[in-house]
Design goal:
heterodimer, A: mainly alpha, B: alpha+beta, 4-stranded antiparallel beta sheet, 7 helices
Chain lengths: ~190, ~260
């Protein structure tokens, strides 16, 4: 029996209606990421346009066995946004760059949250604050281990260990490695 | 886990997350690489790097809530961009079926009006299945890309390494389309079970490390071969292309030597 094509597979096949659906499905996510990682709203708009061009170009690379479509689009967005930050040597909007997760907003607790989001939040909340901050800086800003160590005033080895363990745990919790949910300690 | 293994894993992670900022070194010591891959339970470094990138992206998704709605004006721009992006493919579809000579068809002004009408009809009838169209060959795709604004053609310089010193050809690349093709004449064949050729894209705007452009094989007595470029990362401004010979599946970082170089 033929599997139904995913939205990104339909985009890769050249289906123009799928491109519209893609904008509606992921536009909010990409816009939210761009707002947080751009110096101003105009930059954020340009960034969103660039990100979606990446989506059109690389939709053919999406593998449903590797990740959700949301995660794949977020990966493309992250690459482009960090590139822009580096190229323009700009800082993200500071007021929107608070500590990532402290607790799920009350409104969200009742709302439908994907399993992936829930797992990542659980993993992050169980990390010690120092590890969570290191993971947060490396994922959001693409800072090198050395820059994070300097920023957090921590030994380089500690930062590397925090990030390695934290991200591999998230990787395993999401099944990205093909492994079952890990029972490793968080730190 | 040995110290060297840990360093290699950390270098992979930093490459996945920081790209241009990665400062860790990598090693091609097969034993250390094998131990590292076993430690992270991945079949290859590229696979592990991809998994870490996805994990990082998942963190962003989880931390981006609550999401802001996309502004209507921006949505309209994205829809326009999508239509524009779809345009070259539609033109290709028309030209592959056109009875007129290709050069006249593509260069004449009439194709634009026909293409615009075609796009309007397909866009508005979203439920309609597009007509079946014969897939263009790689040679046709390369030729069409060559005619698009912004496409550059770089010739392979003569290699100083035998038996690559007799190789000729060029690279066609369009940055906007993120698409390109290698043309290689007299390229020695490789044994895919032992080595594969790997393309590297030099992009100083992006990174001090070249971008992996994909691996490929050359079958014996191929004459001229055309290879589509498969850039693993978005290319900002390609300045040069290089080919190395690596283990099957390719490598994350090459030790060289550079067999062929095409530079602007």
């Amino acid at each position: 029996m033929q599997q139904k094509m995913t939205l990104l597979q339909r985009v890769a096949a050249g289906e123009q209606a799928a491109m519209r659906e893609c904008i509606d499905e992921f536009g909010g996510l990409v816009w939210s990421l761009a707002r947080r990682l751009s110096a101003n709203p105009n930059d954020a708009e340009d960034a969103v346009q660039e990100v979606f061009m990446e989506v059109w170009r690389f939709a053919k690379r999406y593998d449903p066995d590797q990740s959700s479509e949301t995660t794949f689009v977020a990966m493309l967005a992250r690459r482009r946004l960090i590139d822009r930050l580096r190229k323009h040597n700009r800082q993200p909007l500071q007021e929107s760059f608070e500590e990532g997760i402290t607790a799920a907003p009350a409104a969200e607790q009742a709302a439908e949250v994907s399993v992936d989001v829930r797992r990542v939040r659980e993993a992050m909340l169980q990390m010690k604050p120092e590890q969570r901050e290191a993971v947060h800086l490396s994922t959001w800003l693409g800072m090198s281990h050395g820059d994070i160590a300097e920023s957090m005033n921590l030994p380089l080895g500690t930062v590397k260990s925090h990030i390695r363990r934290g991200l591999m745990l998230i990787r395993d919790d999401l099944g990205l490695s093909g492994q079952a949910q890990s029972s490793e300690t968080r730190t | 886990m040995s110290k060297n293994t840990e360093m290699l894993i950390d270098a992979w992670i930093e490459q996945a997350l920081a790209g241009a900022e990665a400062s860790g070194g990598t090693t091609h010591d097969p034993a250390i690489a094998a131990e590292a891959l076993a430690e992270v339970r991945a079949v290859s470094a590229d696979t592990f790097v991809g998994q870490i990138e996805l994990a990082a992206a998942a963190v962003l998704v989880a931390e981006s809530a609550p999401q802001e709605p996309l502004p209507d004006s921006l949505r309209d721009k994205l829809l326009d961009d999508a239509r524009t992006f779809a345009t070259p493919a539609s033109v290709t579809a028309i030209s592959s079926r056109a009875p007129q000579p290709r050069s006249g068809w593509l260069q004449g002004a009439g194709w634009l009006a026909a293409a615009t009408l075609f796009i309007a009809l397909v866009w508005q009838s979203a439920e309609q299945t597009p007509p079946a169209i014969a897939e263009p060959t790689i040679a046709e795709l390369r030729e069409q890309l060559s005619t698009i604004d912004g496409t550059v053609t770089l010739t392979w310089g003569q290699s100083e390494l035998s038996p690559f010193d007799g190789v000729r050809g060029d690279v066609v690349w369009n940055n906007e389309r993120q698409q390109g093709f290698l043309r290689l004449v007299n390229m020695p064949a490789n044994n895919p079970s032992v080595t594969q050729y790997q393309l590297w894209i030099v992009d100083p705007e992006r990174d001090s490390n070249p971008i992996d452009g994909g691996v490929f094989n050359v079958i014996a007595a191929s004459g001229e071969v055309l290879i589509p470029i498969d850039a693993k990362l978005p290319v900002i401004d390609a300045k040069a292309f290089a080919i190395t010979e690596e283990r099957p599946g390719g490598v994350v970082v090459s030790d060289g030597p550079l067999l062929l170089i095409a530079a602007s």
